[in-house]
Amino acid sequence: MKNIFSLTLGIILLIIIFSFISLLSLYDYNTLFYSYSSNSHFNNNTYYFSNSEFFWPVPGYHTITSYFGKRESPANGASSNHSGIDIAAAEGSAIFSVLSGKVIYTGFYGANGHTVIIESNSYSIQYSHISPNYIVSVGDYIEKGNIIGTVGPKYITDIINNPYKDSSGKSTNGATTGPHLHITIKENTIPIDPLEFFNR
Ligand SMILES: [Zn+2]
Fold first, then answer.
1. How far is the CA of 84 from the centre of ligand 1 (A)?
2. pLDDT score, position 35
3. Ligand 1 mean position, distance from CA 16 (Å)
4. C-alpha of residue 87 to centroid of ligand 1, in Å
5. What are the tens digits of pLDDT across the range 89-147?
6. What ranges make up the beta strands (E) of 39-132?
7. The pTM is what?
8. CA–CA separation, 180 and 50 (whole Å)
9. Distance 163 CA to ligand 1 centre (A)
10. What is the distance in A from the centroid of ligand 1 to the CA of 83?
11. Does residue 30 carry a pLDDT above 60?
């Protein structure tokens, strides 16, 4: 009798734990779905999405490690007038297209490392220091919110005579100190502050 009681109690406990986990993942799914499908409001330092029609490229990552404009060069060969922003993100994180548009460039782009550029009307959006394993090609039409690549590694081996190296002499993914997404947004060929853009 005691054994049956313990067994029943065990099963009930399992059911409770299982329901809790399901609820949690459901909640996660909803937040995910909500974030991906609608425009939440821009609030202070939380750059998920804007109150406008633009898609935040690395959902879940909102730490800006380098802002737009004048700065001290963080790595050998990196610009002192930053054409975009750097968003800290783990290597392998999915990168989503900010706008719908056409891929106009994929390849190693000097100090920017491995790069995809997508043109969308008067805007061009450049995603840099990404993985050399490209999943889009020049000419592809990309919908806003579709995955265009993943955040690349710090070190790469695929570029012969790569001038970008760290202090140990290892070949790096452009001028970079670690995995992150650099994004440059140009409006009519002029770089604009991406954070200002996302706040439109
Ligand atoms: Zn940068």
1. 6
2. 38
3. 47
4. 8
5. 999 999 999 999 999 999 999 999 999 999 999 999 999 999 999 999 999 999 999 99
6. 64-66, 69-70, 81-82, 85-88, 94-96, 101-108, 114-120, 123-128
7. 0.74
8. 20
9. 17
10. 7
11. no
